[in-house]
Amino acid sequence: MRLQVNGKFHEVDVDPDTPLLWVLRDTLGLNGSKFGCGVGFCGACTVHVDGEPVTSCMLRIDEVGGRPVTTIEGLSPDATHPLQRAWIAERVPQCGYCQAGMIMAAAALLKEKPKPTDADIDEAIQNLCRCGTYNRVRRAIKVAANG
């Protein structure tokens, strides 16, 4: 199968039923997206497919087709995306496990709504954070939105 990830094309020899998450992590070595719940609920594995946020644990590789995939590693080659900078400035992560998925969900939100309200953030960011950094996440999204 031919897969476009972070702007590069890859030939992968995997079962068509393999979840995208495992192809990213085990085949391509892109470990930013994390396995959390395995049922698409927690959001730790969120990536963009064709610019839309998806839980990669629930998307089979044969469902990706030729659509481009962007992982946290592809969001910015040097971690200078406004969200990544805001995440650091607002000290969002504690354990950090959910943060890549959280940032990817936030990036999709800002693409759709460059100046999101609290309600927009609540609706778009459904990712779970065991450390409870939701207030910091909200602040970081607003910092990134304001440039």
Q: Whole-number radius of gyration?
A: 15 Å
**What is the number of beta strands?**
5
Q: Within the CATH hierarchy, at the fold level, what is the topology of the largest domain? A: Ubiquitin-like (UB roll)
Which ranges are low-confidence, i.e. pLDDT below 50, for 5 or more consecutive residues?
A: none
N-C termini distance: 39 Å
The averaged pLDDT comes out at 96
Percent helix, as a range, is 25-40%
Strand count, sense and barrel status of the largest sheet are: 3 strands, antiparallel
The helix-and-strand class reads alpha+beta
Strand composition percent: 5-15%
What's the SSE pattern?
A: EEHEEHEHHHHH
User: Which CATH class of the largest domain applies here?
Assistant: Alpha Beta
- Please give the count of helices: 7
CATH superfamily of the largest domain: Beta-grasp domain
Q: What is the correct CATH architecture of the largest domain? A: Roll
Instruction: For the largest sheet, list the strands in their spatial order.
Output: 4-3-5
When the domains are counted, the total is: 2
Shape: globular
Please tag this protein with its features.
147 residues; alpha+beta; Ubiquitin-like (UB roll); DNA polymerase, domain 1; 2 domains; three-stranded antiparallel sheet; two-stranded antiparallel ribbon; globular
